[in-house]
Write a structure and sequence with these properties.
Blueprint (H helix, E strand, L loop, with lengths): L1 H19 L4 H17 L1 H5 L3 H8 L2 H30 L4 H12 L5 H15 L5 H26 L3 H24 L13 H33 L1
Length: about 230
């Protein structure tokens, strides 16, 4: 379980740096300054944690289910950024699309903050006798310097923005898949049953049918709208 969580944390950091590769240097430093400020402010809370308490948290299925909600929202947010950014490369976006892309581009995400909190906690555990504030300020300074440089290095290694967007998309899909593994926490077995929940089955079928009809109607409306503009 800890291995899965550590892998997710590493992927979240990589996704954070990879996303900053699509920003300018000023935006990168501002984003890193916000995250560094979070590290400094979270110093006292991180110092009050214990390894036993963290291990107990990771073993609680209810807490992992709550974290999966944050993970799902963050993955959906990052995926939306990839789609909008790729669409902007193909042509200009509308007003709403441009606003949504601007928000998605400069918001670092939700998962990076608990990941940085966990890194700060582990550093405090690994450096006994060192002042907690000094550890937090040092980590914040390293993040403020290393993360923008790492994003610039990614731009140098992979100059094609389309490839970086594809990589960001795939990384977040991998995070989502590992999030499912972390959520079940080994509870993958399910009791078999011979009964069919006809009500639930009918509800799912109704939702699928309604979504299909709505999609077809929306597609026809957009097609007629484009035809009327051409005429």
């Amino acid at each position: 379980m800890e291995t899965v969580v550590m892998t997710i944390m590493a992927l979240v950091i990589f996704s954070f740096v990879l996303k900053m590769s699509g920003q300018g240097w000023i935006a990168r430093f501002i984003t890193c300054a916000v995250t560094a400020l979070f590290i400094v402010l979270a110093c006292e809370t991180a110092a009050s944690q214990s390894k036993t308490q963290i291990a107990d948290w990771l073993s609680q299925p209810e807490l992992m289910l709550d974290m999966s909600v944050w993970l799902t929202i963050d993955v959906a947010f990052q995926t939306g950024y990839c789609i909008l950014a790729a669409k902007s490369l193909a042509g200009p976006l509308g007003r709403r699309g441009s606003m949504a892309l601007a928000v998605c581009r400069y918001v670092p995400g939700l998962l990076v903050f608990p990941v940085l909190f966990a890194i700060l906690t582990q550093l405090i555990f690994s450096l006994p006798g060192v002042d907690f504030a000094a550890t937090a300020w040092s980590l914040g300074a390293c993040l403020l310097i290393a993360a923008p440089l790492a994003a610039g290095g990614l731009c140098w290694l992979v100059p094609e923005k389309e490839i970086r967007l594809e990589l960001l998309f795939m990384v977040n899909m991998l995070i989502a898949a590992l999030g499912v593994v972390a959520t079940v926490n080994g509870r993958t077995a399910a009791a078999g049953t011979n009964q069919v929940e006809w009500g639930a089955l009918g509800g799912v079928a109704a939702i699928i049918a309604a979504g299909t009809v709505a999609g077809i109607a929306y597609n026809r409306f957009q097609t007629k709208k484009q035809i009327s503009k051409i005429k």
